[in-house]
UniProtKB/TrEMBL annotation:
Gene3D superfamilies with a match to the protein in the record: Ribonuclease Inhibitor
Record InterPro entries: LRR_dom_sf
Superkingdom of this protein's organism: Eukaryota
Official protein name in the record: F-box domain-containing protein
Length: 469
């Protein structure tokens, strides 16, 4: 719709993975259904029409401006099912149409790179062209409801998958996943996400033991647990010595001896550490020996309070010290501590040492008995500290509880920030800053180029980092 050159350049790019665009309602994308229909052979069209599937009257391949499927490098089973459902609501008809689509896709697509096979019902590896298409697969996403025999079939063809993403929705182990992992020659990225809270067996053991054999290539490990105790991961975690990213949402029940062992684990390449629902002491133990290259230490600060209920003050102080002693390259940091003089002193040391810090997610664990004036004083101390000691790389501050800044103190802070400082974004859950006098002040400094954003959000989770990978 701009010119021919733009069109010829963009269409191959858009069609590399046309099934995965956020915001597109594929259930109502009749244009994609028309394109798929155009590729069907006349005898297939006759068969499909007889089954009661409504094909577009313009379903003629000669009408297409491009050979769209020749650009495609991906299959997304759920999205394709949504598009094909436009032709018929009957399960059998949809199944037949999907079978024909996969058949023609295997003929047209020169290579398959991305495959989201969640809830697939077609044995596509039996197609004559399947071996040539699947042997170069780079990314696979599936759930544990798929029959193991399907994964055994894929294991015979796919040996070069670099990213495997598993959604666990079944109560029993899926041994096909372990086999698929076992045959990979260069597995770099693995994700496991529990969606079933009522597991009857341990679904992790065989899968993680297969993962251990890939420890020389595995750089990214993300595991979210909702079910049973994740002792298997705790036992094998030390063996993943090449990790650059470690993300977990499962609590580590560690004894004193296990914590000492954790301090001795070595991840020389670790750059991103994101442990949710864990004690600050566990995070401190990991960074004590592995913080040299860390750029992100992320967690939801309010969740650590429950995990550190009896030793919060001690663990939070130790955490701040471990960060500034071991993480000179840190860029994104979640942090929580009580507003004591000792904690503020260590926090200021952190700001002085960590010169690459770009974003700070902060929660002050204030006492419910603190008066309004005391809360204002804590806020004033924080702003003064940021002016005195934070580096010029800091561009974002996320405040996880109701920090109070008087209008005068906030204006003084912004005036000082405008001098040799980058434009700043501030996020808060305190509704005070929606009041007219605060909005007027904030808009003034937005217009002056001192503030980029000053956002108020409703819920705590909205202020936490969304991008954790």
């Amino acid at each position: 719709m701009v010119n021919r050159l733009w069109c010829e350049t963009v269409v191959p790019i858009l069609w590399r993975n046309p099934w995965s665009y956020d915001g597109v309602n594929y259930n109502n994308k009749s244009s994609l259904f028309t394109i798929i229909s155009c590729y069907l052979f006349d005898n297939i069209k006759g068969f499909i029409t007889e089954q009661g599937i409504q094909l577009p009257s313009s379903s003629n391949q000669s009408l297409l401006l491009f050979d769209y499927l020749s650009f495609c490098r991906s299959i997304n089973v759920n999205t394709i099912r949504s598009i094909i459902s436009i032709g018929s609501t009957l399960d059998y008809n949809q199944f037949s149409m999907q079978q024909e689509f996969y058949s023609l896709f295997m003929k047209k697509c020169p290579e398959l790179k991305y495959f989201d096979m969640r809830s697939i019902k077609h044995q596509i590896f039996y197609f004559p062209e399947a071996k040539a298409r699947l042997e170069l697969l780079c990314e696979l996403k599936c759930d544990t409801s798929i029959d193991s025999s399907y994964l055994y079939g894929l294991s015979q063809l796919c040996h070069h998958i670099q990213r495997i993403i598993i959604i666990n929705i079944d109560q029993k182990p899926n041994y096909g996943i372990a086999k698929l992992i076992e045959v990979q020659k260069n597995l770099i990225h693995f994700e496991w996400d529990d969606y079933d809270e009522y597991l009857t067996d341990d679904p992790y053991k065989d899968i993680f033991l297969a993962l251990v054999k890939k420890s020389d290539t595995l750089h990214y490990l993300k595991v979210f647990f909702d079910g049973i105790d994740n002792t298997t991961l705790q036992d094998i975690l030390p063996k993943f010595h090449k990790l650059k990213t470690l993300i977990s949402d499962g609590y580590f029940f560690l004894t004193k001896e296990q914590l000492e062992r954790l301090k001795k684990q070595v991840y020389h390449d670790l750059e991103i550490l994101n442990l949710e629902w864990n004690s600050l002491n566990v995070i401190s133990c990991i960074i004590e020996n592995n913080g040299g290259r860390l750029k992100k230490i992320l967690f939801r600060p309010h969740d650590t309070i429950d995990c550190d209920y009896y030793h919060f003050n001690e663990h939070s102080l130790n955490f701040i010290r471990k960060v500034h002693e071991n993480c000179p390259l840190i860029e994104y940091l979640s942090i929580i501590f009580p507003p004591s003089k000792e904690h503020f002193t260590e926090f200021e040391n952190l700001l002085k040492v960590c010169k690459n810090l770009k974003s700070l997610l902060l929660l002050l664990d204030m006492d419910i008995t603190d008066t309004y004036d005391e809360v204002l004083e804590h806020g004033k101390e924080l702003l003064n500290m940021l002016i005195r000691s934070s580096s010029t790389s800091l561009i974002e501050v996320r405040l996880c509880n109701r920090f109070k800044f008087s209008l005068k103190i906030l204006e003084e802070f912004l005036e000082k920030w405008r001098v040799n400082r980058p434009i700043l974004s501030i996020y808060t859950i305190d509704s005070t800053y929606k009041e007219e006098d605060y909005k007027e002040l904030i808009n003034k400094y937005k217009n002056d180029g001192v503030i980029k954003d000053f956002k108020h959000v409703t819920y705590m989770d909205e202020i936490c980092y969304n991008e954790i990978s």
